[in-house]
Design brief:
This protein is mainly alpha-helical. It has one domain. The protein has 15 helices and 2 strands. A two-stranded parallel ribbon has the order 1-2. It is globular, with a radius of gyration of 20 Å. 43% of the residues are buried. The N terminus and C terminus are likely disordered.
């Protein structure tokens, strides 16, 4: 009884390991955002070219190729029997793959195609608001001013970082804006859904069946013969193979690993580093100028991350710092 009472009076700082995993994942997502633009503009690098790829094909290829790589590796290492999950959870994993991963991917790229990257990112990154509202409504978190301020700063920081203020900012298109808004809900969904499922399954098994659900959905929506009819060349297939690794398999593996250590609101606020990484990478490799407003946005995102990671303590709680793993 004494141990139980003591456990209830302890507030722990979240493990640094979770933040590192989410940060690495977000860096990869930021890199893939630049590569995604190449698929629509036809310009892979300055002086290079790439025939345009349809957003649906890009979304489908990234999950299908990732599944084709991950499945034989896991079967060889663990055996098929160890990878099976009960039917009820299989349904949840497939729904997470369809409504979370497949939907957010496609809607995000559709939003980029119909509007611009700034519009797509800022609308998708309203997802922390929805995650916070959901977890508060379910009683999973207290609606503290610190959490509310962190989420608000993250959203405003993303808006400034992607150029919402100034030239090249928000661009209205009914379909594009709706797609980006729905992508935010899908993004929030797989944050909350994956976190709960990771309590029972390791990240590789979770990722396998989430990818299976997304890939199966795309095969029904866009059968293989329709892909063949696009007559993509070697350069495009090569790009899609690399893109699948950089934008799907590796970042999602790191992201799910982070969710094993962090609750959804913390994880999704840290993921707001994606537009920050995109801007920094563009400045380093493409020579794009970082404006004052963008710098301010980067600072706000970093402040939000610092706020959200601070523990919430009730009066009389003891603060315990977990060892860095």
């Amino acid at each position: 009884m004494k141990d139980e009472l003591h456990n209830h009076s302890v507030t722990k700082l979240p493990s640094l390991k979770g933040y590192v995993y989410i940060a690495v994942s977000t860096l990869l997502f930021g890199t893939s955002a630049t590569l995604g633009r190449a698929a629509f503009t036809g310009h892979l690098l300055p002086g290079g070219s790439l025939a345009a790829i349809n957003p649906l094909i890009l979304s489908q290829s990234r999950v299908t190729v990732s599944l084709a790589v991950l499945l034989p590796i896991l079967v060889a290492r663990r055996g098929w029997a160890e990878l099976r999950v009960p039917g009820r959870d299989m349904v949840r994993l497939f729904l997470l793959g369809i409504l979370g991963v497949a939907a957010s991917n496609y809607l995000y790229y559709l939003a980029i195609q119909r509007t611009n990257v700034a519009t797509a990112i800022i609308l998708e990154y309203t997802a922390p608001v929805w995650v916070l509202l959901y977890t508060v409504a379910r009683g999973g978190q207290r609606p503290s001013w610190r959490r509310i301020a962190a989420v608000g700063l993250a959203v405003v920081g993303c808006a400034l970082a992607v150029g919402l203020v100034g030239a090249g900012g928000f661009r209205m298109d009914a379909v594009g804006v709706m797609a980006a808004s729905l992508a935010a809900f899908s993004f929030a969904l797989y944050n909350v859904g994956a976190h709960s499922l990771l309590a029972r399954y390791d990240r590789w098994k979770l990722l396998l069946w989430v990818l299976g659900g997304a890939a199966g959905f795309w095969i029904v929506v866009n059968p293989p013969w329709k892909i063949v009819a696009e007559h993509y060349g070697r350069e495009q297939w090569g790009f899609m193979a690399v893109f699948a690794m950089v934008s799907m398999l590796l970042p999602f593996a790191f992201y799910f690993a982070g969710l094993e250590y962090l609750e959804p609101t913390r994880a999704i606020v840290v993921s707001c580093l994606e537009p920050v990484f995109s801007i920094v990478l563009a400045a380093i490799f493409l020579g794009e100028l970082v404006r004052g407003m963008q710098t301010a946005g980067i600072v706000l995102v970093l402040v939000a991350i610092a706020l959200i990671q601070m523990p919430e303590r009730a009066p009389g709680d003891e603060l315990v710092v977990e060892p860095i793993e």
